[in-house]
Amino acid sequence: MSEAPRFVEIDWAGRRVRVEHQWIAPERRAAPLIVFLHEGLGSLSMWKDFPQRLCDAAGCRGLVWSRPGYGRSTPRAAEEAWNPDFMHRQAHEVLPALLEALDVDVAATPPWLFGHSDGASITLLYAARFPKQLAGAIVLAPHILVEDLSVNSIEKARNAYLETDLRQRLARHHDDPDSAFWGWNDIWLAPGFRDWTIEPELASIVCPLLAVQGLDDEYGTLEQIRGIARRAPQTELLELPACGHSPHRDQPEGLIAASTDFIRRHHYNHGD
């Protein structure tokens, strides 16, 4: 069963920020832990029941959380503009601080990471920086470089936020939808972000890795996951038909089956 969302405080960016989080099936004390990292406009609540379904199928525990600036976590300050290294900082600073605050012993029992979109890129950056502190990773629609397709879709999202009910819909999931939207949208459309890439870091990833992308993804081409596999040869690829940018919404059954098989193979093959 899932516990109710709760909050923990961490020190980050020179201030105390609260992080909304939720444990799934904490009673499975000996089971692997999956940590879920949401997309650029996501939050704990926007995952809906997918983390619970995956953890139940795989027999795992889960940790779902909202990054600072999202959900019920501390919003981004009005004057705070994200820099091109914002995903690096999430991977290198925020996620480790959260795991420490929640007493997750990454040395004794490394967790699994399950990331979507920006959260998938953060997952890859964590895997590259802390190779001994995770058991494996599953990344959905990751970004390893900026493509014209991504920028065009993010420009459309800006228009939708200004001209449609997108802000009202996001307000159901974020205490401050403007914090969530403009933090993400402004940096992705900044001219200085066009040269952003995490390709050099990928060769440092040694853990088992499953990279998933929909064939109809409006935010990235298949080069995003195929580029990972070229640099981290242990990567397994899953290319899903009839699937856009959110495989956990468009193809949940197939994704759960593939993820469960992947986790079980690599967890038990290592004698855990």
Automatic annotation (TrEMBL):
Q: Which residues form the AB hydrolase-1 domain?
A: 34-258
Q: Per its record, how is this protein called by name?
A: Pimeloyl-ACP methyl ester carboxylesterase
InterPro entries the record matches: AB_hydrolase_1, AB_hydrolase_fold, AB_hydrolase_sf
Q: Which GO terms describe its cellular component?
A: membrane
What are the top taxonomic ranks of the organism? Bacteria, Pseudomonadati, Pseudomonadota, Betaproteobacteria, Burkholderiales
For this protein, the record's Pfam families field holds:
Abhydrolase_6
Q: Which organism is it from?
A: Rivibacter subsaxonicus
